[in-house]
Write a structure and sequence with these properties.
This protein is of the alpha+beta class. The protein has helices at 4-15, 22-26, 78-83, 98-117, 119-131, 139-150, 156-168, 185-193, 196-202, 208-215; strands spanning 29-37, 61-67, 73-76, 87-89, 95-96. The chain has a five-stranded mixed sheet with strand order 3-2-1-4-5.
């Protein structure tokens, strides 16, 4: 049975020009910001996503690396791309390695996770703009869009504003993937200051712990 190193060597040599020196073969490969989020493609009969270098299965994230000599590509996991110090090529063509490369990869994952987690919400936002032509110039709406795009979450008072507009325009919001921020003291204060109507508009998007704390107020 092949061990980790043997699998990596076998798969790397198969798709590289270099067939003997492992470190030399690794230098043929680079990463250029292309990430696959396998949550998007999940399904009962979907094949298990795996690292095409070490063959580890059930990956959430795959990073597409390319061979600079023969244009072959491999989909690998974050552990392998970092462990073997595969270069990240930035928009200026510079090769980035080590901690700086790892930091950029982590940021890319964060951005991909935000984009993935808010797909239904952004679809509803686009629908709202179509139904209300002045909405895209509304400062509070712009704040909603910015917070979701940058943080992946929304402050409670902005969530109330958004849901009220969904209701006014007849947009179904109850099954959205909206995440309301509760980490900052500012956000918990906003929840405490909500009236009963505002609180129950956003209640379903709050964690159970927060619901248990604030439901008492309106009993």
């Amino acid at each position: 049975m092949e061990n980790y190193q043997e699998k990596c060597r076998k798969n790397l040599f198969e798709y590289s020009l270099e067939k003997k020196n492992y470190k030399t073969a690794l230098k043929e490969w680079y990463f250029q910001n292309e990430i696959i989020d396998n949550n998007v493609f999940s399904g009962v009969n979907a094949p298990k996503p795996f690292c095409e270098l070490c063959e580890n299965e059930d990956l959430r994230w795959q990073f597409v690396i390319y061979n600079i000599n023969n244009k072959n590509e491999l989909k690998v996991g974050s552990s392998c791309i970092k462990k073997f110090d595969i270069a990240l090529i930035d928009k200026n063509g510079n090769k980035i390695y080590g901690k700086n490369r790892n930091s950029k990869i982590n940021k890319l994952i964060t951005l991909a996770r935000i984009e993935s987690s808010n797909k239904l919400t952004f679809k509803a936002l686009n629908e709202l703009c179509k139904l209300n032509s002045g909405m895209e110039h509304n400062k509070r709406f712009i704040d909603c869009w910015t917070q979701l795009k940058v943080n992946g979450t929304l402050e409670p008072k902005l969530a109330v504003f958004l849901i009220n507009n969904f209701i006014e325009c007849g947009i179904d919001y109850k099954e959205l993937d909206l995440i309301i921020s509760i980490k900052k003291g500012k956000c918990t204060q906003q929840i405490r200051k909500l009236n009963e109507t505002g609180y129950f508009l956003i209640r379903n998007f709050l964690p159970e712990k927060i619901k248990n704390e604030h439901d008492i107020k309106f009993r």
